Automatic annotation (TrEMBL):
<dbReference type="InterPro" id="IPR002528">
    <property type="entry name" value="MATE_fam"/>
</dbReference>
<feature type="transmembrane region" description="Helical">
    <location>
        <begin position="188"/>
        <end position="209"/>
    </location>
</feature>
<comment type="similarity">
    <text>Belongs to the multi antimicrobial extrusion (MATE) (TC 2.A.66.1) family.</text>
</comment>
<keyword id="KW-0812">Transmembrane</keyword>
<feature type="transmembrane region" description="Helical">
    <location>
        <begin position="410"/>
        <end position="428"/>
    </location>
</feature>
<keyword id="KW-0472">Membrane</keyword>
<dbReference type="GO" id="GO:0042910">
    <property type="term" value="F:xenobiotic transmembrane transporter activity"/>
</dbReference>
<feature type="transmembrane region" description="Helical">
    <location>
        <begin position="165"/>
        <end position="182"/>
    </location>
</feature>
<feature type="transmembrane region" description="Helical">
    <location>
        <begin position="352"/>
        <end position="373"/>
    </location>
</feature>
<dbReference type="InterPro" id="IPR044644">
    <property type="entry name" value="DinF-like"/>
</dbReference>
<feature type="transmembrane region" description="Helical">
    <location>
        <begin position="385"/>
        <end position="404"/>
    </location>
</feature>
<dbReference type="Pfam" id="PF01554">
    <property type="entry name" value="MatE"/>
</dbReference>
<feature type="transmembrane region" description="Helical">
    <location>
        <begin position="41"/>
        <end position="64"/>
    </location>
</feature>
<feature type="transmembrane region" description="Helical">
    <location>
        <begin position="240"/>
        <end position="259"/>
    </location>
</feature>
<dbReference type="GO" id="GO:0005886">
    <property type="term" value="C:plasma membrane"/>
</dbReference>
<feature type="transmembrane region" description="Helical">
    <location>
        <begin position="133"/>
        <end position="153"/>
    </location>
</feature>
<feature type="transmembrane region" description="Helical">
    <location>
        <begin position="314"/>
        <end position="332"/>
    </location>
</feature>
Amino acid sequence: MLSQLTYKEYLKVTIPFILSTATQPLLGAVNTAVMGHMSEAFYIAAVSLGVILFNNIYWLFGFLRVSTTSFSAQALGSESAKDKFLALARPLLIAIVISLIFLIIYPWIFKYYALLMKPESQVVELMKNYCDIIIWGAPFVLINYVTLGWLMGQMIIRYTMFMQISMNVLNIILSIVFVFIMDMNIQGVAYASLIAQIYGCIVGFIAIYKRGNLTIRNEYIQSLKTLQPFLAMMKVNVDLMFRTVCLLTINNLFAIAGASMGTVTLASNAIILEIIFIVVYFIDGMANGVSVFSGKAKGYKDINLLNSVLKISLRCLAVFIIFISVIMYITKSYFINMMTDLAVVANYANDYSIYLILHPICACVGLLLYGMYTGIGNTASIRNMMFVAVIFFYICQKILMSYLGNDGIWLTYNLTYLLESIILIFYLPSLKKYFN
């Protein structure tokens, strides 16, 4: 039985997760920066709204990765060839069905999304050019969730890192080539993402073939005809799916508020948000490490190990937040100006650059504790926290925006994440019941 976690053990697992997750917002930042160097702010607004639309779609089913990781890890522990196969096959079928539904209903999704967001007509046209291409990546994105989750559950860390990092690096390179060299404009960004998604899917299956040691038998395939395990798999993630819906609601309310203040505000907020996401994904990498060790602590029924995980992770988080706050304070204007050549957008974004420093401070503890709660399996507390947060965001934004304009939007966003951190700290004593 383990009772203490060392910094070396924590960082050995956490650093690969950080490197993998940090490339995702970097991809979004590069795409925004590529459009930011075009001739009009319409390009930034169109890409940001298109990205929000597909984040809405994909984040809603992010449970595919979480649940696949869980079932894959359980199969690894049981050393059951059948369970290992089904841990991959069942979520793959779910991913394929969901993605096919997306392809069918996409025209209606885009129509009502454009009506909801109410951007200017030029932005709608550019956004449609982007979305009409990127929608074909839906099957590959959801399948990638499954293959990535399965590889993580099997502890095939190197292939997990390679799959995520190489896919995002390829996307970045193709975006730059297609836009600046081949002059494909917004379609170039979309095709770059689509090609990278297909590439990631191929890499995932190659990794499974080479390292997965899968055994496929007819009796295993026949088991896929049983409906109950599929329903059980979906039920496991109800609370996590609710959290995602709440996050999407908050992000949509944030974007709608920015769009209502004009294209420049929408574009500027998108730039600030992309930079924030880079920092947040570093914290998410830490949270993934916390999730792994918290789950191990629960498996051992070792509350001392959990306390050790909490202590070490919070200390590492504090060092990171101090470091990144200093970096952001010194370089915030540089990062913003790097994202766009449009002076009006850059100047407006610089006026609100303080939130680049404020947001990680407000959100960091909540993001880290989210990893601990999900690792242990206490998703009910996550659900309750998000229910309170989304109501708080809606009310607070209505009040603060009317008095403070765009500052009100950003203050609401940061106060909401601070509230999430406070609520999860409040729930910490409830974790003891999982170790009785």
